[in-house]
Amino acid sequence: MMYVVDVSLSATLSGHQNPIFAIAPGVQASTIFTAGNDKGVVEWDLSTGKFKRILCAVPASVYALYLLPDTGILVIGMRNGEVWCVDVERQELLHKLKTEKGAVFAVRSLPEKRELIAIGEEGVAYVWSLDNFELLYRFRVSPTTVRTIEPYAGANQLVFGDKDGYIYLYDVADFKAIEKRKVHDMPVTALATSEIHLYSGGRDAKLYQLAKKDLATIQDLTPHMFTVYSILPHPNFPVLATVSRDKSIKIWDMASLSLLKNISIDRGYDTHRLSINTGIWHNNQLITAGDDKLVKIWDVAINAAT
């Protein structure tokens, strides 16, 4: 089935003084968090389209925000190698976790094992218990920087993407390597999954649709002129969005990778004027942010083609 996608700009949120690198959903349905080169994590109220509060001050640039599912805890990964766990309601720092060196670029949870995993500049993964936040495992994934982690939903595997263009498939149970494959000619900058496929984006401006079990290429294309910074599967429809350093947002059919919508200045949209670094879906809204210090809220209507 093909879909028709209509997009309109709902709001532009301003207030950041520096580039934005990370977005996460809020504990309340109408809120989100953003962070980047500013010295604080910002909470926004989407119902009013306005700044809500500074959740917390931070000592370094923030590259990763992750709301722990079914909790009120926001996890913050920073340039200085620290991983903070903050109680959103009480605005309280609960745990300050630390990697050995380098920036933390990606954070995810493994709910089945009640574990938190982070990785970054040194290419080493750190796994902490979600029960007491003690370090359980530390293992090297890559000899170079790893910018992205993606656990397989409902499965016991996860993938990492590194600076040399390699993707690594690991078993979650014992963190043993299953597969390693060079996919991109440049760094892997985005990973996402569907029930069937793994999707990978890179600094080579390529988007790959891969087999989840062995990372074999099924199809690929060049969706943008520059780096693909995020791949965002829609929560309800079989479509995905990509955002890029080329300042455009594109929406694709998840199966065929056919282009459904090009959201760019050239197409008449009031989109970002500089690199788009991150995005999330919030129900039927797409939220994007980047180097222009702005957060854009897009209303996205998806209907079956007649």
Tally of distinct domains: 2
User: What is the number of helical segments per DSSP (H or I, 4+ residues)?
Assistant: 0
The CATH superfamily of the largest domain turns out to be: YVTN repeat-like/Quinoprotein amine dehydrogenase
Stretches with pLDDT under 50, minimum 5 residues: none
Number of strands: 28
Distance linking N and C termini: 10 Å
Question: What value does the Rg take, in angstroms?
Answer: 18 Å
The helix fraction, in percent, is under 10%
Strand order of the largest sheet: 1-28-27-26
Major sheet size, sense and barrel closure: 4 strands, antiparallel
Q: What is the H-and-E element order?
A: EEEEEEEEEEEEEEEEEEEEEEEEEEEE
Describe this structure in words.
There is one protein chain. The chain is an all-beta fold. The termini are close together. It contains no helices and 28 strands. The chain is 0% helix and 58% strand. The protein folds into two domains: 1-15 and 223-306, no CATH class; 20-140, Methylamine Dehydrogenase, Chain H. The chain has strands at 3-13, 20-25, 31-36, 40-45, 50-57, 62-67, 73-78, 82-87, 92-98, 104-110, 115-120, 124-129, 135-140, 146-151, 157-162, 166-171, 177-182, 188-193, 197-202, 207-211, 217-221, 228-233, 239-244, 249-253, 259-263, 276-282, 285-290, 295-304. The strands form seven sheets. A four-stranded antiparallel sheet has the order 1-28-27-26, with no helix packed on it. Strands 2-3-4-5 form a four-stranded antiparallel sheet, with no helix packed on it.
Q: Could you give a short description of this structure?
A:
Helices cover 0% and strands 58% of the residues. The chain is mostly beta strands and 306 residues long.
